[in-house]
Amino acid sequence: MSSSKSFVSYGPDSEFPIENLPYGVFSTASNPSHRLGVAIGSTVLDLAAVRSLFTGPIMSKEGNVLEQSTLNGFMSLGKSAWAETRSTLQRILSANEGVLRDDSGLKSRALVPLDDVQMHLPAHIGDYTDFYSSREHATNVGTMFRGPENALMPNWLHLPVGYHGRASSVVVSGTPIHRPCGQTRPKDDEPPVFGPCRLMDFELEMAFFVGPPNDLGCPVPVEKADDHIFGMVIMNDWSARDIQKWEYVPLGPFLAKNFGTTVSPWVVPMAALEPFKKANPPQDPTPLPYLCHSDPYSFDIELEVAIQSESMKTPSVVAATNFSNLYWTMKQQLAHHTITGCNLQPGDLLGSGTISGKTPDSYGSMLELSWRGTKPLTLSDGSTRKFLLDGDEVVMMGSCLADDYRVGFGSCRGKVLPSALR
Fold first, then answer.
1. Cis status, amide bond into 285, omega within 30 of 0
2. Could you tell me the CA-to-CA distances from 361 to 322, 338, 379 in Å, in that order?
């Protein structure tokens, strides 16, 4: 499709064509209430303003969810409601449909310039889980700390490794992150010390929001897992490497990860990503039956991460990779998460883990890019980094490229501030 398919004009490089239509939560200076919107071109369609246009069999009854302040209610309705809503949106935004295009009053109320909005977290996140699903990332980190012969732990090729994160510190893009303080042990033969993290890092990830819940005690079969996956965002799971090194034995990351996780504000629905499906990566050994699915559920999403210091005019790209580099699929992650009967809820967030490719320029963290600080990166202004400095802003972007349109996620950005502890 081209922009002529919508009466809203935008260029061919727009992140938000009519083929995308991602969901978010926004407010404006004139109306500070949080409300649901859909991005189209350089505007946001206020869903509450056009609620009366959703006349399908599901949304005519459930349309009140479009007037809520988070996407949780809409996420809970499931694929039929999502499909009906998407069909309505594409119809009323079409160049051939006049119901919104020709109603100047409604159009002026419903379409808000992107530059005039403030974005918020798209959902109330009750729980947050982070996986560890990139084989290249796990191999790199394992090699650094255990050697190449023991890079992957014995369980890694048999199950999607993950941990429960801290939902309260998940923030929307643009929120600054204070450098955390904690215990570290700079010298192995001396006692630990307390102070600001010295090895501040980013982790380039993606994440998906859960839609309909499953009942406590009732696992979601892998063949039905996609019924519970609403859409995707870009995620930066900030990491304090020196704090993590000291604390992670025996239970894993705690303070090294709980101080902040940043997500992009627009949730791209899975329907928009359908044309970009790819074959799943080969898995050897074959996983246990509850994790096996043959239908493709990997996606061709190009990702990049850049760093911009306070003295730089533009960000300096430090890595580029692809979501399809993940070994474990989102369906496998969700099926594994619920196999115990764990009950997921609408708005729960499940992260992919750091996404790294096979080449050094495709590594998804500073830990890998600088190879544990032994190979400093040179940025575009000539400065170097082993890890992040105060004042650095990390900018992550992602998009799917078709022949004549682009599906983007908006930026996932956050600036590192000095420790708040004086």
1. yes
2. 12, 35, 13
| Closest residue by Cα to residue 124 from 167, 85, 159 | 167
Which residues are the active-site residues? 137
pLDDT averaged over 10-residue windows placed end to end, the chain, 422 residues: 77 97 98 98 98 97 97 98 98 97 97 98 98 97 93 97 97 98 96 97 98 98 98 98 95 95 98 98 98 97 98 97 98 98 98 98 98 97 97 98 97 97 78
Task: Retrieve residue 153's tokens.
Answer: 């732990």
Provide the pairing of β-strand 177-178 with 412-417: parallel
Query: Which pTM value belongs to this model?
Result: 0.97
Q: Which residues of 184-194 are buried (b: 16+ CB within 10 A; e: fewer)?
A: beeeeeeeeee
Both tokens assigned to 86: 């998407």
